[in-house]
Hints:
The chain is mainly beta. The chain is built from 3 helices and 55 strands.
Amino acid sequence: xxxxxxxxxxxxxxxxxxxxxxxxxxxxxxxxxxxxxxxxxxxxxxxxxxxxxxxxxxxxxxxxxxxxxxxxxxxxxxxxxxxxxxxxxxxxxxxxxxxxxxxxxxxxxxxxxxxxxxxxxxxxxxxxxxxxxxxxxxxxxxxxxxxxxxxxxxxxxxxxxxxxxxxxxxxxxxxxxxxxxxxxxxxxxxxxxxxxxxxxxxxxxxxxxxxxxxxxxxxxxxxxxxxxxxxxxxxxxxxxxxxxxxxxxxxxxxxxxxxxxxxxxxxxxxxxxxxxxxxxxxxxxxxxxxxxxxxxxxxxxxxxxxxxxxxxxxxxxxxxxxxxxxxxxxxxxxxxxxxxxxxxxxxxxxxxxxxxxxxxxxxxxxxxxxxxxxxxxxxxxxxxxxxxxxxxxxxxxxxxxxxxxxxxxxxxxxxxxxxxxxxxxxxxxxxxxxxxxxxxxxxxxxxxxxxxxxxxxxxxxxxxxxxxxxxxxxxxxxxxxxxxxxxxxxxxxxxxxxxxxxxxxxxxxxxxxxxxxxxxxxxxxxxxxxxxxxxxxxxxxxxxxxxxxxxxxxxxxxxxxxxxxxxxxxxxxxxxxxxxxxxxxxxxxxxxxxxxxxxxxxxxxxxxxxxxxxxxxxxxxxxxxxxxxxxxxxxxxxxxxxxxxxxxxxxxxxxxxxxxxxxxxxxxxxxxxxxxxxxxxxxxxxxxxxxxxxxxxxxxxxxxxxxxxxxxxxxxxxxxxxxxxxxxxxxxxxxxx
Length: 737
């Protein structure tokens, strides 16, 4: 692992294993907030005016001293099990850089056993001149929650008297800001450190240190489906004899110009032992831009939704099912080469795009779709259930972080058409490299206003791992702007606003972002283009890559239409729009959401669309000449009865609806499941509904009643057999009309 190296902005990879072994913590209980004192500039601030997002999370932290491996960054990483510890002397301090001058209204200190009985909380605009926000002289450890009033870019806690013979030790230093933000008058700088949850390894990093850091994060993330942890692993060019296990909200990437520049010779793994071999909830993880030479010859990537594999060279076989052969339900591979055989024995649905399967494919269940994939099995739908297109169409690969010499840059692949095979196989990927200093490197705690100011200034946007609670809409209005998230960076709109809006301009790329709906209903999570616009973007389309929406699960959330695409020619390259069916904040009247994907623009292409559990049409396509390759859907589990799942004399809402006025549309490989857990007698008349016109053609469709818990009367437009009964046998239509 490396900290900052000359010419590079690097995140610190912490060793939670070492921290846990050395740390003996007392049980933490909420303590009454100590008196803030009467120092000028301090005082209480009304709780209603104070935000709830931790502005210190993931920010750069420094300290007067460090004991062992317990550096300052560990107090602002959001992990309650890691800590900063100082030398056993007085005075000592820790400070955090918030990135800009902020209105400060609260500071929370979560102490380890070694606490401070006397300390000051201070703020500074420049890191040189400090003013006191609060003074505590009777601290008792546990959690100190302080109301403060003031402003500053830097917040410092200075300990003057220890409560034990040890140094000062903080699990967490949290800073809360008001709704107002004082921005510096100077231009917002680009580039910067990637924060504590970006873990960077080089070929000279000791192997045991790399493995320990990987294992520590996996121990935390393996089963933490709805937790706050977000992590990005980056490997510099080299060979790494390690095993990389991918848990929730974890992204694994190489930094080379080609996948073969980074070789993981132990393996990269996603299994489902945490869920007793059932991989149907292995969500929100990814692997990208590296080679894997798996020990034993087999790489396992047993995943379902929101778990893409991109630009990967598998030097062996690839297993898409768990080690226990439990079910998995959908996945996505693009721009990859697999030397051995791909085995998908218990994988229900899968989409493989623009790749090479040198060793072929084994195992088909309900819906295996290939486009632009060399050595893919030929179309044989429905038995076996394979749909293969020779080429994909107009496509652009996802932007990715890489090294350009000694510096970070984001590589942006070029637009292509009639594609087949991986972009890098036998050559180099065509595109443009954008230096990191042309990006605003955002951190959790940044406001939408701050991000918009950076975008307006002409910077691209890099979202470092973490949760971004915002009260304003992030506006992307400049042509060819790149928005790239690392480590499942998550945007939560907290004021009922649209989380992000892309203007009706050419060439914007939005990639690697998770939107999590807030408790106040938003019109949308992501809106692309302006309603009613007819601007032509064919030469430089907007593109979405690995964009995911979650409504409920982590907490109660509400949205009307989750993703809305108004701009013509938009490319939608792998999305999962999910109204939650499990977790927190789940219920027919709790996590309300009408539609998961609405397409109003013309000439929009969708490659790998996963849209599930919405309360009306899961996908509504209003634009002309739409084109979809691969669609996966489950209807909502929770309509309380048939009366709640009816409209206009029709039982149920179709999973995929092409509006009645549309005259041209094509789609291949579409599947929809039902499992009405509240009332198994509920019936949907059709899984799919489209206009009956020669220009609308649908290929390889299926509906499935899971265990007979609900019924589809027909597959599409009154055509196709009933899907019902406990045998869970798909009802299929090969082509319509």
